[in-house]
Here is the input.
Amino acid sequence: MSTKEGQRIYLDSSDTITLYENNLVNLKTSDGQFFEKLEPRRLFPVSKASEYITLLDTEGKEIAIIRNLKDISKDSCDVIAYSLNDYYLVPHITRIISTTEKYGTLHWCVDTDRGIKYFDIRNRNHDIKVYSDGRVRIRDSDDNRYVITDYRKLDGHSKKQLMPDL
Here is the structure.
């Protein structure tokens, strides 16, 4: 049974989430409430990707929260995963082809799971973040995000290109 704390609804396996269209979902709570066209968003997209997912209505108001994807049914979890993957389409860098710097801006050419990408990075200290598990998050000058799953597993050339910027 979903629980209410104040106005916030916390979802569990008795609630049903179905796909509406694109990355929007419908929610039917165990007590019969129905909400449509909700947008799932991660509250902590990097550190807790499968925890604390909010469902927002068309005006951006929070309707419900999923504390952990393990708390909801498999069918609902599959719908949420599909929706989040569609929304958080983040290319994964598999190889760094080249990096150059001109006037303080880094120019990168990388190979990703979505093909070769070229982008600029304005501030290496702010736009390149390394996590203890080896993940690297990169934000380019157009506010696009890229991820290296584990920089330690990159090929030698890629590591050589990356290391001066870490």
The first strand starts at residue 3 and ends at 5. The mean pLDDT is 90. Residues 93-165 form one domain.
